[in-house]
Amino acid sequence: MAAPISEKMGITTPKDSIDRLPEDPEKVENTETTTDEEVIVPPVNNGETQQRWNESTTNLFRFFSTIYAFILMGMTDGAIGALLPYIERYYSISYTVVSLVFLSPFIGYLLAALLNNLIHHYFGQVGIAVLGPLCRLVGILPLVFHPPYPALPVVLLFTGFGNGIEDSAWNAWVGNMHNANELLGFLHGAYGLGATIGPLIATAMVTKGNLDWWYFYYVMLGLDAVALVLLTGAFWRATAKVYREQFLDATGGKRTTTRTVLKNPITWLLALFLLGYVGAEVSLGGWIVTFMLKVRHVEEFWAGLSVTFFWLGLTVGRVVLGFVTGKMGEKLAISIYLLLSVAMQILYWLVPNFAASVTFATFLGFFLGPLFPAAIVAATKLLPSDYHVSAIGFAAAFGGGGAALFPFAVGAIAQSKGVEVLQPFCLAMLIFILLMWWMLPGGHSRGGLERARENGEKVGDGFRRVGRRVLARSKGAEA
């Protein structure tokens, strides 16, 4: 018996995201006259038909293939920080110039944010499965030939685009499954695992194997070639035709434009939250080694090991706290994790001891771990179901740009002020994303996000409620 189309596509929506908002004037009824900016949206399903990661061999294959893809994405992002001092030394360049290896992928992530839905529409999920690894291969291949430095930022545009479209697509797919908090915890834990072993392998190759920095990318070439085969095989039947047929059957031809999704303030709030979060995470991961060498004055191997412990803490946090977050409620849990992260960041900054620094960095990674998965779950609970693929895809890819933008900013400032600027910079970013999180609709009790959608709460309502209470109490005190 042939598998239903919904099983082939793998995009469903949570039960609490079924109720649709009033019809948007941007909706277009006639599919033949829609423009390229308009994107297919996933069908509306009830909670009983939510996909499970293990409901079929197809889903099992696809889920574990995305896990492997996230491991490679983590290795790519994590290793660059460990190799940064050696790239700087090899090319004899400044902090600002070497930081361009962080900035250039931002353009790739931005393009991924804008094109994610069009790729789904014209090529389906199999298009993502092919383009993601292929773009990473195009970006990595020149690195093994250690070309002149100006070529590095250019080729890394491709890795940014490949990571961006996979990041957005697989987040949207897994984020709409049953037990999304836990599954996204494993998915992003895989990224953390890659970011843990990537620097470890790279550091060992350079410091213990006496190899030049570019030899690490021979390893990545082989691993990404495997990813191309795995993902293409896993999503081979998830074509554009399947994607469009599922949509037309479920919605009668209605489509939601990208412009409409971007007019919703929640989309931008989550995108800014992820931009700041990923920026803080990768700034720490990218500059810890240099910070330990220049400020804590430790040996190269131990400096490389410190970033491994940071990513290890992040990996464990994503997996372990993923089971806690859903039980506490996303709004409360992430608020607690962020406050603890701020405390760890301050201690990491102010305690000038190597062992203490590694300990605080590890716990900082642990509490930062579940933030990205929780933001994806929040999107599925606060936004209409037909916004999910577009909004999550945009927020994830736009947020991924933080991995390029903010580490570059740290490097540019460090050129004149020293790498010590890493700590106050990351502290400011953590406070910023905490404020962004508190601006989301919904209270801090469990189920607050769901009730916020049911009650039609708006962005910043929590701050307004607190302001009214403070004002009322001050008036009462005066009386």
From TrEMBL:
Family: Belongs to the major facilitator superfamily.
PROSITE patterns: MFS
Membrane topology per record: Multi-pass membrane protein
Gene Ontology CC: one annotated term: membrane
Matches recorded under InterPro entries: MFS, MFS_dom, MFS_trans_sf, MFS_Transporter
Matching PANTHER family: BYPASS OF STOP CODON PROTEIN 6 (PTHR23514)
Record field: compositional bias (Basic and acidic residues): 16-30
Record-annotated Major facilitator superfamily (MFS) profile domain positions: 62-444
Region span, Disordered: 1-34
Transmembrane segments: 60-87, 93-115, 122-145, 186-207, 213-236, 268-289, 301-320, 332-351, 357-379, 391-415, 421-440
Keywords: Membrane, Transmembrane, Transmembrane helix, Transport
Compartments reported by the entry: Endomembrane system
Location (main, coarse): membrane
Pfam families (UniProt xref): MFS_1
Transmembrane helix among keywords: yes
UniProt name for this protein: Major facilitator superfamily domain-containing protein
One GO MF term: transmembrane transporter activity
Record keyword Transmembrane helix present: yes
